[in-house]
Amino acid sequence: MLLHKEGRGPLISFAIILIGINAFIALFGGAFSLVSVILSALFYLGVLNFFRYEPRKHSTGDLEIVCPADGRVVVVEETEETELLGCRCLQVSVFMSVFDMHVNWIPCNGIVEHVSHNDGRFLSAHLPKSSTDNERSSVIIRSEGGDQILVRQVAGAIARRIVTYPEVGSHVGINENLGFIKFGSRVDLYLPLGTKVHVKVGQHVKGNITDIATLPR
Description:
This protein is of the alpha+beta class. It has helices at about 10-30, 35-50, 130-135, and strands at about 1-5, 50-55, 65, 70-80, 85-95, 105, 110-120, 135-145, 150-155, 160-165, 170, 175-180, 185-190, 195, 205, 210-215.
C-alpha cells in the first residue's frame, strides 16, 4: 500500500503518542498492556488506511469533467454561487467518509485563475450550509474551452486541515493532485449551466476515474 505524502507528519506523531501511551500503561497497567497494544494497532491501521494513495491515470476529451474525489454524490442541483462566480451554476458535491481515500484531483485541464482559503465552522459535511459556513479552500480553473470551473474543498466535522496545491497562473490538468483534506470532508464542483451531468445523488464515485460531467460546447 502506498502512502500519500500528507500522511508522513501525522503518522509519525501518532506513532510517538501511541508508543508513549503503551509504555506508560506497561509500567503501571500490568495485565491491561496487551489490550492497549491491540487497540493502538487497530487505530494506527485505520490512520494508515486513511492516508493511502493510489496513482491513477485518466484519458478524456477537453470537455469532460473528471471526479475530484472518492466518495458518494450528495448534491446534484442548480444553485446560485454568489461567493466567487456570481452566477447560477450546476453544483455537484462528493462526500468523503473516513474510509475513502482523501486525495483530491484536478477535474479538468486549464489555467488556475483564483485560489483562496476561508476560515469557518466545522459542521457535518453532509449539511448544505457546510459549503458556505465551513472552513474551505476554493480554486477556479479556466478550462481549455473557456469555461470557469470552481472546485471547493470543504472541511467536515472532524477535519482540521485542508491542503491545496495549485497556484494562480499555473497550468493544471487531469491526473494531477489538487490537494488533501484530513479526516472527513467533501468537495464541491460548480459547473456552467448547460453542462451534462453523468452522476446522480447516492452514487459512489472515484477520483480521477469517474466522469462527472460534459461541458457545453
